[in-house]
Amino acid sequence: MFCTVCSAYVNEDAKHCGACNRCAGGFDHHCNWLNNCIGEANYWDFYNLICLYLVFMIVFQVVSIIGFIDGTIMEKTWMVVMVVIFMFMNLVAIGFDSELIHLHRWMQEYGIGTFDVVLFEREKVEMKMLVKSGQKA
Ligand SMILES: [Zn+2]
Ligand SMILES: [Zn+2]
Fold this sequence. Notes:
Bound molecules: zinc ion
Number of strands: 6
Shape: elongated
Number of domains: 2
Largest sheet: 2 strands, antiparallel
Order of helices and strands: EEEEEEHHH
Strand order of the largest sheet: 1-2
Radius of gyration: 21 Å
């Protein structure tokens, strides 16, 4: 496959990323949080990172609960407020991260990547539009 933007020959599974302005081999998705592409070269680093992140967040949650139980957090009101806010945000992040890990595990099982899912979703939307406009019998 020839990429006209990079003016170079790239692998079939590569995709040109507009945000990074370069091609990524085995393109999975562009991660806005990491501001980088996730492809075959760093997919497992990415997956390990989101798993590690989950572990860290759970540790934070456990440490906070212990702090409440043994009363070290209770000494100062601002500390209690801060920790409660952090714990709440942490809980939301745990939810999102678990969903993300779950999705990636599911995709690993089926041997597909994020980009395949995106393409599939896009196709579904196009199909729906075709059905609506009556072009598809
Ligand atoms: Zn390119
Ligand atoms: Zn990218």
